[in-house]
Design a protein that fits this description.
221 residues, globular, alpha/beta, 6 helices, two-stranded antiparallel ribbon, 25% strand, seven-stranded mixed sheet
């Protein structure tokens, strides 16, 4: 588990208290994975937002972060992370790095994270922020999330943090047998969907209710 160094970036006991409260709220909403809750308690979410919006950081709400994107609602981050059932050193492909907050949660629960972000502005910002916090994913990439990262496949788990109209075939191909793909499917609102790869050609599908995400954009070039 990475050693967080957020104290150098204005992380106070007040922030810690707010994180503890947030974790309690998430637990009351049904998040039971201790590793996920511990990560929520440790990660300084306010540092993933513009400092002028710090007061919103520990509310259980999504918030705009630029480039038409959002930092996901903490409950959504925790819910997706819990579905993955990450074991230490699992290789996890994240589609949509965004602010890096979900990336940080995955790293703290023990995953080796490979992440792709389509918005260059966010990719640059997050690539600088995460190392300052002592969080070091295995690989951050600027590119098309629909294509995944075949050069690093196969993955134990794949998480998609934007709403997709369909499940990209390359992502299914990059999942290990026995692995889980968690993706919000739909246009306006999305159904949180999990595929478990049973063998080379068969996947078991589970659905977990309605969520709302920004759209997963495909590079048409």
């Amino acid at each position: 588990m990475p050693k967080l160094i957020a104290y150098k970036l204005k992380d106070t006991s007040k922030h810690q208290g707010l994180r503890n409260q947030l974790a309690k709220v998430l637990e009351e909403k049904g998040i039971s994975d201790k590793n996920v809750l511990d990560a929520i308690k440790k990660i300084p979410r306010h540092l993933f937002l513009n400092s002028s919006f710090e007061d919103f950081a520990y509310q259980d709400k999504a918030f705009p972060i630029g480039a038409g994107q959002t930092i996901s609602q903490p409950y959504t981050v925790a819910f997706q992370s819990q579905l993955l059932e990450v074991m230490k050193d699992h290789k996890v492909l994240e589609i949509g790095t965004g602010s890096g907050y979900q990336t940080a949660v995955l790293c703290l629960i023990g995953a080796k994270v490979y992440s792709v972000e389509r918005q260059n502005e966010l990719f640059k910002t997050t690539s600088l922020l995460l190392p300052k916090l002592g969080i070091r994913p295995k690989h951050l990439s600027f590119g098309d999330g629909y294509k995944g990262l075949p050069q690093y496949a196969p993955f134990d788990s794949i998480i998609v943090t934007a709403g997709a109209p369909f499940i990209p075939q390359p992502l299914m191909a990059q999942l290990k047998i026995g692995g889980k793909l968690v993706i919000p499917l739909g246009e306006e609102n999305q159904i949180m969907t999990m595929l478990i790869r049973k063998n080379e050609s068969q996947f078991e599908k589970h659905e977990f209710g309605e969520f709302r995400f920004v759209p997963l954009l495909e590079d048409k070039n």
